[in-house]
Amino acid sequence: MPKSKRDKKLSLTKTKKKGLGFKQHLVDDIRRCVQDYKRIFVFSVQNMRNSKLKDLRTEWRHSRFFFGKNKVMALGLGKTKETEAQDKLHKVTKHLIGQCGLLFTNKEPEEVLDWFQDYSESDFARAGNVATDTVTLPAGPLPQFPHSIEPHLRQLGMPTSLQRGVVTMLSEFTVCKADQALKPEQARILKLLGHQMAEFKITMKCMWSKDGKFKKFESKKKKNKKTSKSQEDILDVDMKEVDDSVDVGIEVGDGNVDADVEVEGESVDAAIEVRDETVDAAIEVRDDTVDASIEVRDETVGAAIEVQDEIVDAGVDIKSDKK
Question: Which PANTHER family match (predicted)?
């Protein structure tokens, strides 16, 4: 059936797409802030929450946060020496990787680093996050939940029932285990229980100042180089021991294989000789039986021919008498 021309879909939303104009506006704002502020910090975000970032912007009104696409922000700063807005600013764009943003401020570096090092906000974990501890619900009533939510709890996998209008656990239930990724159902249960496992944290990666200085901040993971080296040495020693044991095993195995082959070779030769003798005897027996059967067949064929000749002669005599 053809589509009706009158059947048209009208969009009632008033929001507009963020096209090229929005990106150009972001680039212009970044270049303007490069001129207005003394320092630029590149920060990474753990467990991003829009509400937390909004509160952070309100608290740091004297500064400016940019949290857009990395390529657009890099275009505003300048990716190369020829296109950079200020001296050595292209080095900042190399650190715009992953979920990160820009902080333009006039505060001193020590003050900024100390403030963000102590800043963290707890929040509910989402699906895919790693559980920080094990949560177990014992059997019994759950008075914190209303009776209307009991079917939803059963859909999430909890063994619950309504007993006298109170949500009750029928048996002990483990919501999550430590150091394991959370599933969507587990994250919803933890949110209903009010158990927060995620932490909104901002970590500074590098800093650029107007005097042309660029400084990269070391992460906590790089402090454990000695332990990683010692682990590599242990792995090398273990691999050497494994190689030695494998070589010895191969040598011993080769000796066993040679011995087995020799023994099996002798037994195979004996078996071949026995098979040859039995085959020869069988052929001789078959030849004798074939000759005997041929002689018997010849005798029977000769007797049959003689009988047929006599019958034919008798028939000829009878026919001649009748005539």
Answer: MRNA TURNOVER PROTEIN 4 HOMOLOG (PTHR45841:SF1), MRNA TURNOVER PROTEIN 4 MRTO4 (PTHR45841)
Q: Using the predicted structure, report yes or no on whether residue 242 has a pLDDT greater than 50.
A: no
Residues in CB range of 157: below 8 A, 6 or more apart = 185
Distances (CA, A) of 252 to 238, 242, 245, 264: 21, 15, 11, 18
Over the stretch 109-130, which tens digit does the pLDDT of each residue have?
999 999 999 999 999 999 999 9
Residue tagged 């158990």 (tokens) = 195
How many C-beta atoms surround the C-beta of residue 41 within 10 A?
24
Angstrom distances, CA of residue 93 to CA of 33, 215, 216, 220? 16, 13, 12, 22
Radius of gyration (C-alpha) of the chain in whole angstroms = 46
The closest alpha carbon to 168, from 189, 147, 197, belongs to 147
User: What contacts 109, CB < 8 A, 6 or more positions away?
Assistant: 39, 207, 209, 215
Q: How many CA atoms lie within 13 A of 64 on its CB side?
A: 17
CA 3 to chain centre: 45
* pTM score: 0.58
As given in the structure block, the two tokens for residue 1 are 């059936």
Q: Which residues contact 76 (CB under 8 A, 6 or more apart)?
A: 26, 27, 28, 29, 30, 31, 85
Q: State the pLDDT at residue 161.
A: 94
Q: In this structure, are residues 46 and 205 in contact, taking their beta carbons and an 8 Å threshold? A: no
CA dihedral 52, 58, 63, 67 (to 10 degrees): 40
* Residue labelled with tokens 């559980």: 131
